[in-house]
Amino acid sequence: MDSVTKFKLINELIVAIAQLLWPIITLVIVIIFRSEITALLQRIRKGKLFGQEVELGPGLSELRKAVEEAQEEIPESKITEEQYEKEAKELDRDEREVLESAKINSELGIMKLAAILEREIRELAGSLGQLGQRSRSSATQLFSVLVDKGYLPAHTIKSLQIFWELRNQIVHGYALRDDRNVLKVLDLGLVLLKTIKSIPHEINIVSHTGVDLYSDEKCTHKIEGAKGLILETTSPGKAEVFKRIFPTTKPEYYQRGRRVTWEWDLSRVWGQTWYIDPDTKERKNAWDSAGEFTGRYIEDI
Fold first, then answer.
1. How many C-beta atoms lie closer than 10 Å to residue 166's C-beta?
2. Which of 79, 265, 293 is nearest to 206 (CA)?
3. Hey, is 284 helix, strand or coil?
4. Which of 19, 34, 82, 229 lies at a C-alpha separation of 20 to 30 Å from 192?
C-alpha cells in the first residue's frame, strides 16, 4: 500500500471518529455549562443572536393585556374640573420624573417608576385602612391584601406582578438589554400607574388639632387625657368634602394641612362626647363612641 493510500485511509478514519464523538462531546459541554446556558436563554427575549432574530417572551404582551383589563375594571369617578386638573398635574409630575430618569438610563427609568408605583400602593393601602402592621410588607403583598378584601379588581394585581417580574428581569440582567423593550415596559407601567391613581379612596387632611373635648352637651366638663382631631375628608368619588372629629392622645404629633392614613387603636374607646367647633363656635356632638385615631403622615409610611 503506497503512502498516498495510507494517508487517505487515516484521514477517513479520523473523520469517522470525529463524527461518532461529536454528539458525546456536545452532551458533555451541555452538562458542564448547563447553568451558563440556562442563564443565556433567560436573557434572550428579543433581539439577534449570531445574526438570527429571537422572539420576545410573553411578558410584555401579558403585561399589556393585564393593564388593559385592569383599566376596564376600575369604576369611573365623578370629579370636578379643578380636581381633575390637580390629579393630572400630579400624574404629569410623576411621568416627567420617570421619563427624565429614562433619558439618563432606561433601567433607571424602570427603577424610578417602580418606586412611584410602590409609593402609590402604600398610600392607597394607608388611605383604605389596610396598612396597620403591614408597613414592612412588599408592594405586591399589600396589593394582594387589597384584592383579597375586595378593594381592587383581580387584573390590577396581575398587571402589577407582571410589571414587577419584567422590572426584576431588566434591572438584574435576566432580560436582553434592549432599550426598545424597556421603553415598552415603561409605557405600560405608566398606564398602570394612572390606573392605580384612579382607584376611589378617601383623602384625609388634618384641619384642626388639640380641640378640647367634653363629657356633657353644654361643654362644661372637660375630658382629660385626650384631644379632638378634626379631619377634612374628600370622599372616594371626589364629589364631597366634609369634616369629622376623632379622639387622639397625641395631638402634638399632628399638623394642619398634612395628609394622614386611616388607622385606629381600638383598645381605648371614648363614649358620647361633645366639642366646640373651632370654625363656627357651635357646640356639637363629636361621637357616640369612638376608638383612638392613630393615623400617620402619608409620606411616612
1. 25
2. 293
3. strand
4. 82
User: In the predicted model, is pLDDT for residue 22 greater than 90?
Assistant: no
CA 92 to chain centre: 17
Kindly report the pTM of this predicted structure. 0.66
**Can you tell me the mean pLDDT for 200-215?**
96
The type of residue at 227 is K
Is residue 117 within 8 A of residue 192, CB to CB? The reply is yes
Clarify whether residues 234 and 163 are in a common domain.
no
Q: What is the pLDDT of residues 140-165, one digit of tens each?
A: 888 888 888 888 777 777 788 888 88
32 and 67 fall within a common domain: no
pLDDT tens string 60-93: 666 666 666 665 655 554 445 455 455 556 667 8
Q: Which of 13, 28, 47 is the last residue of a domain?
A: 47
pLDDT score, position 252: 96
At 237 the pLDDT is: 81
Coil vs helix vs strand at 68 = helix
The parent domain of residue 94 ranges over 54-197
**Whether residue 186 has pLDDT greater than 80:** yes
186 in the same domain as 88 = yes
For 113-168, the DSSP string reads HHHHHHHHHHHHHHHTT--GGGTTS-HHHHHHHHHHTTSS-HHHHHHHHHHHHHHH
* CA–CA distance, 147 with 135 (Å, rounded to integer): 17
Dihedral of CA atoms 124, 129, 130, 133 in degrees, nearest 10, equals 120
What grid cell was written down for 15? Answer: 473523520
- Which residue among 144, 162, 197 closes a domain? 197
Residues 6+ apart with CB under 8 A from 15: none
Which class for 41: exposed (0-12), middle (13-18), buried (19 or more C-beta within 10 A)? Answer: exposed
